[in-house]
From TrEMBL:
InterPro entries: DIOX_N, IPNS-like_FE2OG_OXY, IPNS-like_sf, Iron_ascorbate_oxido_reductase, Oxoglu/Fe-dep_dioxygenase_dom. The keyword Metal-binding applies. Keywords: Iron, Metal-binding, Oxidoreductase. It comes from Drosophila madeirensis. The lineage of its organism: Eukaryota, Metazoa, Ecdysozoa, Arthropoda, Hexapoda. It comes from the Eukaryota. Pfam families: 2OG-FeII_Oxy, DIOX_N. This is Fe2OG dioxygenase domain-containing protein. Residues 179-290 form the Fe2OG dioxygenase domain. GO terms for molecular function: metal ion binding; oxidoreductase activity. Belongs to the iron/ascorbate-dependent oxidoreductase family.
Length: 342
């Protein structure tokens, strides 16, 4: 079944060349956690990415969330503006062109960040968006549950002390003041070639690496996602496997594992093929972060491995919050606390 879906993709992609590890999460239990841990360890250390199948989040839930975001984008501008992301925060709506990852190139996408499942983060327009909050909250909880399973599998893979990762991620989606975990809804509008300046030099998301522990990404179609695999500088089109969720490691996980796991650079370009770029594209990203107060030290994660003995005794240890804010500052300047992960 998986092979037949891959063959349907006629583009030359990592998926079509079977160059992305595929990890089956079916029949989750203790033995499956051990297997998944081993497969994640191999995938993140060799490729930095993998595709998760049979992950337990129904397509219908994900598609319903995309529909809800479409309804939100159809609201009058004055209504959408009530939910715009404010300076110094990481939750809310961002319109196309507002984010410029390299400081100059507008990014052609609508995004909505949710950091906490409350009225401040989630639109609750009873007349125009009656189901938005319920459906997005349910999906966010599903992604949190999937992330919890992955954290358990990583504990097995890295032979950490019991609950080492779980305890350090106990506040996911509790608000960016305590944990930077974020559910991000994304819509890339169609690129119409006869609209002056719309596609020339434009990007959908600039090149970057994610900051946190790992990212889960669900997407509805092929739409220009590219990565640089470890050891290379060539941009590779990832491709699309329907029903799968892509996982990629973040910088904090790379630091924690002394770069055993890779944080791969990635971007979303405007596709060359007209039939692809002239249709809109949806995705949902779940950025899994540790609690802000967590100290990021390989000595905690590699306690049972030889790498731990190589630590410098005078190595300075930073909290997750300090490291993430440094990344924001490097990207946007010293005054910014905004996130631009894709």
């Amino acid at each position: 079944m998986i092979k037949s879906k891959i063959v349907e993709d006629k583009l030359d992609t990592l998926v079509s060349r079977y160059a992305v590890p595929i990890i089956d999460l079916a029949h989750c239990g203790k033995s499956v956690i051990n297997r998944v841990g081993q497969q994640l360890d191999k995938a993140l250390s060799e490729k930095g990415i993998a595709l998760l199948v049979n992950h337990g989040i129904p397509d219908e839930k994900i598609k319903a969330a995309w529909d809800q975001f479409d309804y939100f984008l159809d609201l009058p501008a004055e209504v959408r503006d009530r939910y715009s992301r404010k300076d110094g925060t990481n939750y809310g709506y961002v319109s196309p062109g507002m984010e410029r990852f390299d400081g100059k190139t507008p990014e052609l996408r609508h995004t909505y960040n949710i950091c906490k499942l409350d009225d401040k983060n989630i639109p609750r327009e009873a007349e125009t968006l009656p189901d938005f909050a319920e459906e997005i909250t349910t999906l966010a909880n599903d992604f949190t549950a999937l992330s919890t399973f992955i954290l358990k599998a990583l504990e097995v893979a890295l032979e950490t002390p019991p609950k080492c990762f779980l305890d350090k991620h106990s506040e996911m989606l509790s608000g960016d003041d305590v944990n930077m975990t974020t559910l991000r809804m994304i819509y890339y509008p169609a690129i119409v070639d006869d609209e002056p300046g719309q596609s020339e030099g434009a990007v959908r998301c600039g090149a970057h690496v994610d900051y946190g522990t790992f990212t889960l990404l669900a997407q509805d179609s092929e739409g220009g996602l590219e990565v640089q695999l470890p050891g290379g500088d060539k941009w590779e089109r990832v491709g699309h496997l329907p029903g799968s969720i892509l996982i990629n490691g973040g910088e904090l996980l790379s630091i924690w594992t002394r770069e055993r796991y890779h944080a791969v650079p990635h971007r979303v370009v405007v596709p060359e093929r007209a039939q692809i770029r002239t249709r809109g594209r949806h995705s949902i990203a779940y950025f899994c972060h540790p609690d802000n107060s967590t100290m990021i030290s390989p000595r905690d994660i590699l306690a049972n491995q030889t790498e731990a003995t190589e630590d410098s005794t005078d190595e300075k240890i930073y909290s997750a919050y300090e490291l993430i804010q440094k990344k924001f500052s490097d990207t946007y300047g010293p005054s910014s606390q905004e996130s631009n992960e894709s």
